[in-house]
């Protein structure tokens, strides 16, 4: 910004007209906030702008005061003057409430329109358009095709896009940018204002918002639309502390009440204490699974803490938002949707449970606290492992230094091109192919779209009869399938069926379940957690898409899954963890102890000495063992048996990409499949016999960096990831219906049918964009080849190599499970704990490890062999069996206990082992035991198969 603009900011409100200044006085706004001081002058002058500032610093008023001023001064006013676009319906509701007062005072009509708006309200808005309409990107798509609404949209002079960073990285956002270009054809140029949390690439996000006034490839014109970027430093207004809880005697007592281990109990205690120390605390977690699991534990200890996430019903979310706002709840466990400014009243502290994985995410989340001018937002990150702690320390330091990740803008998505070609035809009936192409390329995500690719997409869409292509006249026209396709595909979010979860006792919807969870797990009688409460499935209504449930007290259930991915840790964050190891290792080598080395880190990282010590323990053990230290510039390859680990601090997507390259080339050389699992610091491989670390090193040293992309395309051909993505993309192209007809069309046949089409190209591009980092991985290989990156081997597994974070995915083992995998499963189950409970005398019970259970358990008090083997948290089952008068739920528990005892009586320890496995109850255990087998390995393979089925319901967290 210029000096003049900064000077003007001191009296920002003087740039507004008298009516708005009167409203400011009435509202009690005497002094502008920092974003208002800096942004109102250019906005009042009519410039496009991107305003970057933490949540709660008055961004909404920053954007809307100049807009309201412009509308209030206009005479006469016709149609819709301003659109306010948000990515969430919940934000629409909040924005309407926040803007209503200003509208009433200034005599401006502010309304909301989204998918749930009634037909009556829509008709009223079309006949009598409001001055300001709050809406979503998808509803904008529908509005552009309505005859009356198109007339109202001709008067749009301002478009405000809230949380624009959230849209910039998605196909929804790419679709919206073309929608804005379609709007500009209708209304003429309008002011574009973006509101965003801090991002590492503000210029990119500003271009995403504003696009181009001309074809960006024409050198004789200035293609960029003018814009200003107003950025308020978020790092200076936040304060973080990273804590790893220490187990105390209280935690040992609390663990019994929570039916968990001492360490998890310590996490619950620390979070509970933070909630008690503050008036209102948001507790952010990374997955909905964690939200439900943590919420159920707070419910067990009767703490006033609610749960909020996207799979709860709208009513359930509004209920907890209002309860938190009113003070009825002291804490609210929430996921990423709460980052986006949903109004829950004043927040004075934020807890982040586990590493937030990204700098931007931590700033956005902790920014929810302390919403007063000049106030510092305070947050505590509670960590659970050395990796988790080091990562959180790196992220907290980077956040305070404002070192934010760049926005990952979704460029060139061809299914969006297909969708918007149909949208343009819906707008006007028919359109010139040349004009359609030029409109598309004015949107920033499509600036590099070639005319040849565009025409290929048009032909593909025409084949599916979504439009009619007249090649001679070079025009695209409506066809029989245009209308139906368009309204079925207003959103670029993939269509996946969800099931309503209905509480039979209250007849209320409590949430939703993903289709894959229902198919793989949900059966009558099964138990799961939602809203922090336990539910038993009564029946599944396939026609209505409904799961009917009843509330229960039994804690021995499973947590439901939702479609989603683990938040990837960026390369820069993982690299800083590698640097921390590099700094600590020489100090340990020269005789430093944990305490003295930890103290060296406290000046740079916001934590306490003990927490840093726990993070550095694996580093100290690595040095003591004499193994090489994996760092930001050293890769260590280690192995034992058929397990090889590449210790590489490159983050999720680079490790995923590098792992796929290694797996593909090793598989090619050996003719066997290679299992793979990655985290930000390791690539774990299950390799064929007679393959080891030296083979992995050879692959890394011999792979041409320029061939990485081609190798990955070959490796992707038969992957489930590509097949799943192809089906989603084909649906958005309208092509799936073409091949599917009235029956299901197999993934392999679909892939063969769509080979060499834009649909297939887009599916590959989508997988590359979403899951892989080709350029960064090629750069890693170049550095290895040039000697800038050291590559060494360790003679055995090392402390850092075995310290991987499980991320809830430890059950997702390779399909070609070999003896070493079976041995690992066996060892894990043998170390699990069970409760042995005598159903004859009902007095004796004992908690013990599976390996200590005798071949034929019997009661030492009464000598009976009728012993139930129960999960270590199943105390409620024991209480149910002992209850003199049982309710219906206790009867079910008792029946399950007797089924367990019957299996143990008939099959001894084998039954105990089977029921100790994850996701294996008495019914499945009986089926496993009943098989005839030649050896013990086959028994464990069957257990593994059942665990895999269970793991599939655990592998798609948000």
UniProtKB/TrEMBL annotation:
Q: Name one Pfam family in it.
A: DEAD_assoc
What region holds the Helicase ATP-binding domain? Answer: 40-217
This protein's UniProt keywords:
ATP-binding, DNA damage, DNA repair, DNA-binding, Helicase, Hydrolase, Isomerase, Nucleotide-binding
Matching InterPro entries = ATP-dep_Helicase, DEAD/DEAH_box_helicase_dom, DNA/RNA_helicase_DEAH_CS, Helicase_ATP-bd, Helicase_C-like, Lhr-like, Lhr-like_DEAD/DEAH_assoc, Lhr_WH_dom
Q: Identify the SMART domains for this entry.
A: DEXDc, HELICc
Has the keyword ATP-binding been applied to this entry?
yes
Q: What's an example Gene Ontology biological process for this entry?
A: DNA repair
Residue stretches making up the Helicase C-terminal domain: 270-415
Molecular-function annotations in GO:
ATP binding; catalytic activity, acting on DNA; DNA binding; helicase activity; hydrolase activity
Q: Of which family is this protein a member?
A: Belongs to the Lhr helicase family. Lhr-Core subfamily.
State the protein's name.
DEAD/DEAH box helicase
What species is this protein from? Answer: Halobium salinum
């Amino acid at each position: 910004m210029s000096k003049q603009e900064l000077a003007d900011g001191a009296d920002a409100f003087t740039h507004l007209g008298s009516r708005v200044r009167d409203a400011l006085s009435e509202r009690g706004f005497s002094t502008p906030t920092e974003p208002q001081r800096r942004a109102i002058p250019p906005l009042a002058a009519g410039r496009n702008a991107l305003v970057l500032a933490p949540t709660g610093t008055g961004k909404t008023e920053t954007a809307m005061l100049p807009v309201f001023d412009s509308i209030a001064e206009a005479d006469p006013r016709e149609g819709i003057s301003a659109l306010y676009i948000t990515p969430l319906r919940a934000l629409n509701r909040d924005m309407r409430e926040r803007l209503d007062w200003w509208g009433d005072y200034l005599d401006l009509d502010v309304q909301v329109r989204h998918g749930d708006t009634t037909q009556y309200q829509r008709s009223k808005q079309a006949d009598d358009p409001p001055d300001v309409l709050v809406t979503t990107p998808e509803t904008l798509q529908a509005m552009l095709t309505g005859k009356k609404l198109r007339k109202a949209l001709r008067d749009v002079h301002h478009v405000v896009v809230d949380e624009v960073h959230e849209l910039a990285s998605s196909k929804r956002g790419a679709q919206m940018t073309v929608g804005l270009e379609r709007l500009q054809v209708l209304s003429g140029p309008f002011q574009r204002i973006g509101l965003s949390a801090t991002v590492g690439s503000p210029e990119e996000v500003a271009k995403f918002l504003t696009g181009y006034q001309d074809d960006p490839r024409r050198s004789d014109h200035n293609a960029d639309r003018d814009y200003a970027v107003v950025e308020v430093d978020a790092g200076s207004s936040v304060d973080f502390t990273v804590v790893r809880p220490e187990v105390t005697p209280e935690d040992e007592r609390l663990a019994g009440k929570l039916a968990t281990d001492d360490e998890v109990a310590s996490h619950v205690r620390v979070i509970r204490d933070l909630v008690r120390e503050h008036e209102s605390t948001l507790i952010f977690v990374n997955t909905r699974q964690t939200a439900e699991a943590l919420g159920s534990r707070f419910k067990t200890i009767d703490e006033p803490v609610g749960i909020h996430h996207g799979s709860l019903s709208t009513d359930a979310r509004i209920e907890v938002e209002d309860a938190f706002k009113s003070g009825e709840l002291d804490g609210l466990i929430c996921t990423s949707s709460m980052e986006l400014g949903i109004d829950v009243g004043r927040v004075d502290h934020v807890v982040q449970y586990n590493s937030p994985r990204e700098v931007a995410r931590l700033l956005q989340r902790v920014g929810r606290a302390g919403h007063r001018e000049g106030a510092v937002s305070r947050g505590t990150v509670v960590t659970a492992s050395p990796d988790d702690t080091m990562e959180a320390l790196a992220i907290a330091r980077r956040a305070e230094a404002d070192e934010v990740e760049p926005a990952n803008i979704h460029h060139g998505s061809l299914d969006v091109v297909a969708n918007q070609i149909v949208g343009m035809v819906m707008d006007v009936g028919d359109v010139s192919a040349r004009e359609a192409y030029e409109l598309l390329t004015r949107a920033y995500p499509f600036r590099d779209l070639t005319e040849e690719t565009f025409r290929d997409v048009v032909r593909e869409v025409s084949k599916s009869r979504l439009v009619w292509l007249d090649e001679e006249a070079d025009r695209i026209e409506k066809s029989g399938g245009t209308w139906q396709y368009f309204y079925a595909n207003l959103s670029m979010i993939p269509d996946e069926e969800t099931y309503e979860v209905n509480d039979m006792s209250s007849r209320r919807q409590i949430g939703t379940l993903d289709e894959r969870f229902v198919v793989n797990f949900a059966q009558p009688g099964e138990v799961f957690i939602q809203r922090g409460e336990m539910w038993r499935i009564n029946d599944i209504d396939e026609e209505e898409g409904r799961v009917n449930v009843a509330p229960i007290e039994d804690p021995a259930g499973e947590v439901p899954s939702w479609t989603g991915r683990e938040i990837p840790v960026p390369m820069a964050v993982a690299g800083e963890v590698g640097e921390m190891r590099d700094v600590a290792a020489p100090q340990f080598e020269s005789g430093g102890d944990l305490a003295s080395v930890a103290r060296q880190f406290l000046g740079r990282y916001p934590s306490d000495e003990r927490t840093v010590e726990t993070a550095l323990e694996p580093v100290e053990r690595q040095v003591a063992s004499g193994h090489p230290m994996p760092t930001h510039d050293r890769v260590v390859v280690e192995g034992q048996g058929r397990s090889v680990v590449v210790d590489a601090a490159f983050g999720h997507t680079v490790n995923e990409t590098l792992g796929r390259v290694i797996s593909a080339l090793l598989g090619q050389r050996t003719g066997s499949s290679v299992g793979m699992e990655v985290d930000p610091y390791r690539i774990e491989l299950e390799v064929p016999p007679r393959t080891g670390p030296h083979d992995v090193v050879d692959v890394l040293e011999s792979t041409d960096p320029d061939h990485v992309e081609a190798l990955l395309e070959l490796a992707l051909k038969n992957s489930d990831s590509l097949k799943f993505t192809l089906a989603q993309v084909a649906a958005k192209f309208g092509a799936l219906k073409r091949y599917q007809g009235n029956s299901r069309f197999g993934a392999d046949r679909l892939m063969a049918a769509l080979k060499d089409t834009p649909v297939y190209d887009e599916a590959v591009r989508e997988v590359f964009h979403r899951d892989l980092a080709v350029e960064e991985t090629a750069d890693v290989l170049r550095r290895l080849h040039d000697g800038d990156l050291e590559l060494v081997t360790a003679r055995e597994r090392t402390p850092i190599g075995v310290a991987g974070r499980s991320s809830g995915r430890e059950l997702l083992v390779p399909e070609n499970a070999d003896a070493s995998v079976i041995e690992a499963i066996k060892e894990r189950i043998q170390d699990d704990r069970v409760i042995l409970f005598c159903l004859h005398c009902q007095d004796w019970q004992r908690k013990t490890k599976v390996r200590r259970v005798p071949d034929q358990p019997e009661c030492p008090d009464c000598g009976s062999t009728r012993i139930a083997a129960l999960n270590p948290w199943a105390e409620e089952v024991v209480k149910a069996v002992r209850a003199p008068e049982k309710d219906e739920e206790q009867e079910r528990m008792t029946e399950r206990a007797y089924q367990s005892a019957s299996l143990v009586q008939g099959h001894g320890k084998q039954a105990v082992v089977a029921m100790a496995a994850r996701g294996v109850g008495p019914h499945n255990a009986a089926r496993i035991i009943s098989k005839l087998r030649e050896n013990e390995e086959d028994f464990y393979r069957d257990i593994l198969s059942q665990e895999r089925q269970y793991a599939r319901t655990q592998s798609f967290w948000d």
